[in-house]
Amino acid sequence: MRNAKIERNTVETEIAVSLELDGTGSYTGVTGIGFLDHMLNLFACHGGFDLSVRVHGDLDVDTHHTVEDLAIVLGDALVQALGDKKGIARYGLFYCPMDEALTRIVIDLSGRPYLVYDVQLPVERIGTFETEMLQDFLYALSVHGKMNLHVTNLYGTNAHHIVESIFKGLGHALQQATAIQGKADSVLSTKGVL
Predict the structure, then answer these.
(1) 61 lies in a domain?
(2) What integer is the mean pLDDT of 30-44?
(3) Can you tell me whether residue 108 is helix, strand or coil?
(4) Residue 119, SS3?
(5) Is the pLDDT reported for residue 22 higher than 80?
(6) Among 126, 123, 129, which Cα is nearest to 31's?
(7) Residue 167 lies in a domain
(8) Residue 73 belongs to a domain with what CATH number?
(9) pLDDT score recorded for residue 51
């Protein structure tokens, strides 16, 4: 079973995440940020993951701590669920269209965190979600998920569509990268470890 349960409690947030990589694509939980819940639901559905979150954050301040800390815990859960990474494809690539928007997501579960973020969003908020937090979410996910993550929005004008193409594409690319396809007793690396 490739799953994980992680909790992280700070003065600013209390977060618990349950992740099943070989799931049915279900999302349960409430972050307190409606648009983020919508995006997490899309991520789980398109990745085929079962994702459950319990989040209590200081949303009276803003969305920053909640969004970033959730990504930290999600990244930690991904690492735990992957274990020694034996047999995984390691790489994922997906182009995701959403109406007029097109985004390319490329992932390498290399163990070396790095984010390349090439996204311009035309508004400051989508609902109560502060759009500048998208980069922070993806950065924290890449660092704590120990992945190389390249996110490029090739074009688009509607911010909702752009972000939706990112989360759907992230689900698909991560599903590819985490898929078991190689030898169960080795990793796809000349170093012997990921």
Answers:
(1) yes
(2) 98
(3) strand
(4) coil
(5) yes
(6) 129
(7) yes
(8) 3.30.230.40
(9) 98
In a domain, 193, yes or no: no
Domain assignment of residue 191, yes or no: no
Q: How many domains does the chain have?
A: 1
Q: What own/partner pairs with CB < 8 Å and gap ≥ 24 does 94-100 have?
A: 94/169, 94/172, 94/173, 94/176, 95/169, 96/165, 96/166, 96/168, 96/169, 96/172, 97/165, 98/156, 98/161, 98/162, 98/164, 98/165, 98/168, 99/158, 99/161, 100/155, 100/156, 100/157, 100/158, 100/161
In which band, very low, low, confident or very high, does the pLDDT at 185 lie, cut at 50, 70 and 90? confident
pLDDT of 110 strictly over 90: yes
Structural domain of residue 19, as residue ranges?
3-178
Query: Residue 1: what pLDDT?
Result: 87
Return the amino acid letter for 171.
G
Per-residue pLDDT of 58-82, as tens digits, reads: 999 999 999 999 999 999 999 999 9
